[in-house]
User: Fold this.
Amino acid sequence: MIANQPLIFVIDDNAMLRTLIAKQLKSFISCEVVTFENADDVLSQWNAITPELVILDYEFESPNLEYQNGLKFLVALRAKSNVPVIALSGQTEKAVMTKIIKQGANDYIPKNEPQFLDALLRSVQTTLTFQETQQKLKTSINNTNLKFAIMAWIILVGLVAVVFLF
Assistant:
């Protein structure tokens, strides 16, 4: 992985769409992309390489998969990780969108929208920016807590020294 570039997994059974999404992400977001035809191989590799974001298709064409759709994969993923997930689907039913969001997807983008790719790129950028901001906030809080602990220790040592000197 290239330093300071987010890693994004794209899981979609449509090879042409996978390639298009990967090229657009690399061009407009400046990231590293790993693509998968289906979700079956993703979790087995999860501990070796963990992405900052997953773009996940809702339906896979092959009937012989452990994860026959993105929803089943998302449920399994949420048992392991809170990595952001943007779900994609040709489904226009609100019930499908609701299920995916309830299971933990951060966003849902219908593939049949006229500006599908633009919407996806905006969602990816927003999600990565939010993640980066969250990480900076956590680091800031940890640094503040460390500074507070050091100051408290110095004050305690000073008080102990004062007690022993007087």
